[in-house]
Amino acid sequence: MLKGMTRLVSRVHKLDPGRFLHSGTQAPQCLVAHLDNQVPTESPRAISRTLENDPAKHGEQHVGQHYNISIQELKTVFPHGLPPRFVMQVKTFNEACLMVRKPALELLHYLKNTNFAHPAVRYVLYGEKGTGKTLSLCHIIHFCAKQDWLILHIPDAHLWVKNCRDLLQSTYNKQRFDQPLEASVWLKNFKTANERFLSQIKVQDKYVWNKRESTEKGSPLAEVVEQGIMRVRNATDAVGIVLKELKRQSSLGIFRLLVAVDGVNALWGRTTLKREDKSLIAPEELALIYNLRKMVKNDWQGGAIVLTVSQTGSLFKPRKAYLPQELLGKEGFDTLDPFIPILVSNYNPKEFEACIQYYLENSWLQHEKEEGKKELLFLSNRNPGLLERLCAYL
Amino acid sequence: MAAPCVSCGAAASYRLFLAGRVSFAREQGLWKAAAAGLQTGTRCQILRLKHSPAVTTKKNVAALRRESYTVDFIKKQIEEFNIGKRHLANMMGEDPETFTQEDIDRAITYLFPSGLFEKRARPIMKHPEEIFPKQRAIQWGEDGRPFHFLFYTGKQSYYSLMHEAYGKVLHVEERQDQLRAKGLFSEKPKTKDPIGSRWLIKEELEEMLVEKLSDQDYAQFIRLLERLSALPCDAAEEEFVGRFRRTVTVQSKKHLIEPLQYDEQGMAFSTGRGNAPWRRGKRKTANAEAVVHGHGSGKIEINGVDYLLYFPVTQDREQLMFPFHFLDRLGKHDVTCTVSGGGRSSQAGAIRLAVARALCSFITEDEVEWMRQAGLLTTDPRVRERKKPGQEGARRKFTWKKR
User: Fold this and answer.
1) Is the pLDDT score of A214 beyond 90?
2) Lowest mean pLDDT across A37-46, A284-293, B252-261
3) Which helix (H) or strand (E) holds B339?
4) Residue A45 and residue B386: Cα distance in Å, rounded?
5) Separation of CA B242 from chain center
6) Which residue among A2, A128, A371 places its CB closest to the CB of B322?
7) CB-based contact B370 A8, cutoff 8 Å
8) Which of B59, B105, B322, B393 is 20 to 30 A distant from B384 in Cα terms?
9) Which chain B residue's Cα is nearest to A318?
10) Among A8, A320, A374, whose Cβ lies nearest the Cβ of B327?
11) Residues with Cβ < 8 Å from B366, sequence gap 6 or more?
12) Would you state the pLDDT for residue B56?
């Protein structure tokens, strides 16, 4: 009904020929811009792209601009990290462009100035739904990957506390539960992301898997990972071993470790998993969660911990909660304290313009009209996630 | 207050027509009994009506054709009405000479308060001209010869009217020719009729002529009248045409509630009720109050929460956008509002109405009219219909089983 309503202000005012000419001459320039990946030279328009593809060199002047990540890099760095809608957008546009935003720049600045002798600092990205926490995290991960850090990226901790089909009793500790499927999937992706490190790092303990198989001390970490992928039953234990070894060895200075967890509030929330006798399982009874909690403690050096709290996917949390205190609960907050909170908010007007420009350049939005932009602005209130959903096809 | 019937005494009875239109009651034999009762008795007519329900129904079931009221009967009704009017005025302590119809209506609603929802079913006391449908007197004399020369056309009044109108047209054209012949003809531009009047509709014409017309007859008549009004007419002809025009009040459509507070459109709206354009809106059971600020950036706050969080559904936000989008003021106002009751959709509708009403203070009269025509300023009268016994819901009936 609203769409069909005629506008009050006469359309005659808006349809001046000058406007058509303007948009007419735009099209060829836009195509050229797209082909060369150049910055469009129109001054009244916001510049939406930058040629600077190295996150290390991003600075204040790049705020609001999109930078490109090549598809090969995407496959190695982000086998499992990106939000599903972003993956669809990458597939549609045939390119992966992330917007440079202030929270990410702030974090980059901190990371560049970390002192690796001190215990790892915890950074928590928080904000309302759809403001861009996960993509900021991906930006940080890309930076660290370029800087040759070891990336320990858990894409969504919420996936580990719900909808698990098979829960096995842990072989290592009778009290805890294993999740073979999730663990093996994660191990596979971890291997893709950090191939080159796995052969360098050596385990410092002997691990016996069962009567026939064991891993000797001094063998590369790749073996442990292989074992976890092959023998799905031992995958959770493999994950635990990987985490322990990495924590131990990052302090030695061979490599720098980045622990990135999305949805860290799942570690201290509730689960929806039940035992056979229908009683609820607490998160610490899951081996994966238990080991991850140890990882997130800041009792190791030589790296950084970047976390995100999100309500999407969380269990039993009200929709409007977005502050770390609300989402982590008392226990989680006390465990994570002290941390550096970084607020991720909606787009500011410049970023909003840049996003619209990006969509226009990719012909995702067909016509550029002021009224349309105002409508989008109102309906999405400059929330990135909502804007993306509004611009999507029906 | 003593029963009015009793106090009126034995002098005369006055008529109270308990069924609004006599045409309703005519179909039931009840009225005939009532009429019989009314004409004879002086006691309380209402009681009499109650006690004579089924006595005469059997007789009158067969005779369900049009009742014809004789001229004497109508005259007597008029006399009785006038006398009753004077009695009523005496009862109410007013002057019988200057007792108008509105006073009668007020007196009747006071004396006979009725809780019926249907306004036409409540007691009324009106002039018999308005109650009894107009009927034609006998059209022929004792020798059977009709009075009117067009009687055998079947629609004598209609054709005589057409005849008269056409005669006037010819007369005017003849006068024009004479003037032209004399050379005194001046091309006087015809003053166009103001928009405030319209032709009679077919039902009104039928009522005037007391005759059934067809659509073609009506169209023909209107064409003739338009032709007449297009020519330069005298005062007499204007008056003739004026008989068939009715005024249309544009003003009556406008909503009266416009306490527009033209403040200086500044930011001084923190005082709340007094100076700010603070308006209410309702939809189903939701109530909203909104304050719209003149210079803003398009922020909307509902119950202290941003509208993006309060209405996660796009449809609700579109409803909020509608007034601003319509007036092309999307990013120019700030809104602070509170809402309670109803569900998400009705809360959105209530806020939309409140915001539209508040925006009236910032825009011109024309834009207010356009908003009204767009439906932004009307409270949606739809409420939940009650469930009826014997049905599963308001409209849904129980499953019909053949056996």
Assistant:
1) no
2) A37-46
3) strand B334-340
4) 57
5) 22
6) A2
7) yes
8) B322
9) B309
10) A8
11) none
12) 44
B328 and A5 in contact by Cβ < 8 A?
no
Question: Is the Cβ–Cβ distance between A382 and B297 less than 8 Å?
Answer: no
Provide residues of A within 8 Å CB-CB of chain B.
2, 5, 7-9, 128, 319-320, 371, 374-375, 377-381, 383, 386, 390
Per the structure block, which two tokens stand in for A312? 């999407």
For A206, residues 6+ apart whose C-beta sits below 8 A from its C-beta are A214, A215, A216, A217
ipTM: 0.78
- Max distance between CA atoms of chain B, in angstroms, equals 90
In this structure, what DSSP letter does residue B89 have? H
Helix axes A235-250, A180-193, angle to 10 degrees: 40
Judged against a pLDDT cut of 70, whether residue B31 lies above it is answered with no
Cα–Cα distance, A233 to A181 (Å, whole number): 9
In this structure, are residues A64 and A99 in contact, taking their beta carbons and an 8 Å threshold?
yes
The 10s digit of each residue's pLDDT in A350-373 is 899 999 999 988 888 888 888 888
Q: Which residue in B has a C-alpha nearest to residue A128's C-alpha?
A: B309
Which of B298, B305, B326 shows the shortest C-beta gap to A378?
Answer: B298
Nearest to A265 by CA among A242, A239, A292: A292
What's the mean per-residue pLDDT of chain B? 79
Minimum-distance CB partner of A379 among B314, B328, B374: B314
Alpha carbons B285 and B340: distance in angstroms, whole number: 9
Tell me the chain B residues in contact with residue A375 when contact means C-beta distances shorter than 8 Å: 321, 325, 330
| The two structure tokens encoding residue A138 | 């991906």
Q: 3-state class of B53 per DSSP? A: coil
H or E segment to which residue A98 belongs: strand A96-99
Instruction: Please give the structure tokens belonging to residue B364.
Output: 């011109």
In percent, the amount of chain B with pLDDT more than 90 equals: 43
The closest alpha carbon to B377, from B368, B385, B386, belongs to B368
Count CA within 13 A, CB hemisphere, residue B205: 24
CA atoms within 13 A on the CB side of A24: 5
* Reported confidence tier of residue A23, pLDDT bands at 50, 70, 90: very low
For residue B109, what is the enclosing H or E element? helix B101-111
Contacts of B363 in chain A (CB under 8 A): none
